[in-house]
Amino acid sequence: MIYVTKRVEFSASHRLFNPLFDENKNNEIFDKCNNINGHGHNYVLDVTVAGIPDPETGYVIDLKLLKKIINEELIVYVDHKHLNFDVDFLEGIIPTAEHLAVLFWQKLEIKIKNGKLHKIVIYETANSFVEYYGEPIEIKVYN
Ligand code: NI
Predict the structure, then answer these.
(1) Which residues surround ligand 1, an ion (CB under 5 A)?
(2) What is the DSSP string of 36-102?
(3) What is the distance in A from the centroid of ligand 1 to the CA of 15?
(4) How far, in Å, from the CA of 130 to the mean position of ligand 1?
C-alpha cells in the first residue's frame, strides 16, 4: 500500500464555546478560545489517500485531482471565513479541529474514487494538531 498526501492551507476564525454552558464555565473550559469575537488560525490540512499505483499512470491518485477535490469540497467554504457563522456544514457544531476533521472526512470520502481516504491531519499551530482515520464519530449539533 502506498500513502499519498496533499497539504493545503487555509485561514479562518472561530470561537470555542458551548451554548448550554454559562459564561464562567465556558471561560473555565475554553479560556482564550472563548473570546467573544473569535480568534484566528492559519490551518494546515494534510489529506492522505491510500492505494496501489495504477499500472498505466503510476499514480495512487493524481495529486492535482486530490487538490481540486479538497479545494472544491472544503477550502472554498472555509478559507477566510468565520467557522461559527459562515459555513453551512459546520452550523451548530463546536468548531474544534477534532470536529473539523470528522466533517472534512465526510465531505472528502465520497469524492475520492482513486484509492481510499486514509487520514486527515489538521494543524491549528505548528505544535498543535489532530489526526483522524475515519472511525465513525457522532458530533453533537447545538441549535
Ligand atoms: Ni482556536
Answers:
(1) 33
(2) TT-EEEEEEEEEEEEE---TTT--SS-HHHHHHHHIIIIIHHHTTEETTTS-GGGTTS---HHHHHH
(3) 7
(4) 13
In the chain, the amino acid numbered 81 is: K
**C-alpha cell, 3:** 500513502
- Counting Cα atoms < 13 Å in the Cβ hemisphere of 66 gives 24
CATH-assigned architecture of domain 2-132: 2-Layer Sandwich (3.30)
Distance of CA 84 from the midpoint of ligand 1 (Å): 11
143 residues of the chain, pLDDT tens digit each: 999 999 999 999 999 999 999 999 999 999 999 999 999 999 999 999 999 999 999 999 999 999 999 999 999 999 999 999 999 999 999 999 999 999 999 999 999 999 999 999 999 999 999 999 999 999 999 98
Active site residues: 33, 80, 124
Q: Where are the domains of the chain?
A: 2-132
User: DSSP characters for 97-141?
Assistant: HHHHHHHHHHHHHTT--SSEEEEEEEEEETTEEEEE---------
